[in-house]
Amino acid sequence: MDFMYVFLAFVLILGLIYAQLMLKYSYGWKKLPTFVPLNTVSGFTKVTVIIPARNEAANLPALLDALRQQTYDPALLEVILIDDFSTDDTAVVFEQYATPNMRRLQLSNYLNAEQRLNSYKKKSIEIAIAEATGHLIVATDADCVMGPKWIETMVLFYELHRPKFIAAPVSFYKEHNFFKAMQSLDFMTMQGITGSASQLRNGTLCNGANLAYERSVFYEVDGFKGIDNIASGDDMLLMYKIFKAYPEGVMYMKSQDAIVRTLPVDTFQAFMHQRIRWSSKADKYEDKRITNVLIWVYIWNVTLLALGIMAIVRPMWWPWLLIALLFKITIELYFLIPVSRFFRKTELLVWFVPGQLFHIPYIVVAGWLGKFGSYQWKGRKVN
Asked: Are 274 and 265 spatial neighbours (Cβ–Cβ below 8 Å)?
């Protein structure tokens, strides 16, 4: 019984810390203003959209169609797709859909096939930026789609605030089953925290599917130098380098017109590889504000998983497990409901409670394997 009381006290303390954290993020999201453009674009900002791609023939038509429909002046918009040793019809599909302001670079023209890197994506982006003519670099992924005002909204925000780096919203779409809905809810939570952390000035978070930065500032902070040996992190690790140089120059743009949508993965194996890849860079963050939050969240989920295991072994623990889960669900829904309204995905909330049975174990396993395991990405094994 002494162990039980000590453990429950530990759960209570962790729960209060977690509640304080989520309530703070809820406050930050609500205080983050929605960007409403009041002016028109100046007509002077040249933009280069950079798309690293490896075996993306199936996804490129939707992306290139979305880019062709952009309302921003095509004369001020350049699109560079850099092909990372694709073995499918990526090149053929690109040529079929490309417009005069779109061009394709071949990574094999800059690297030989035997040359081994830990981050081909960073090298691809670095090469594309060197070839870019735009003042503002906008990055996305080849499996994404966006609305027609995406670039125009990004430029309006940039011309109003003149930030050095812009993080912008990303969401999933085509969530046709429970597994994909669960992924979307998890991802939407991370996006809400991303915007909130920016508003509260207590962390630098972003997603590489939707961000922008000045071409000049990329070189000013020496690009990916110092982080090029890390497999992922072309987004957040670069963001923090820019943040260190310009603490007030990193902003989050909360705008529905700027949302980029990407697809959830189809299989559990692909999901775990994706989440392990994301968690693998956690201990690489120089921004310890984020690292500390991740540690607390991880310990909280480990504790809940342990409580669940004890409830299976000893039924007397079941009431405490249910109380802890109800507490967690209530706090998270309080944060997530306003975020889901922004992303227009409130219908997915019906899956939130059953998703907890999957969410807690995956957080624990992915966090552990992200630190000590390896994963597959685009057919390559990464340590």
From this structure: yes
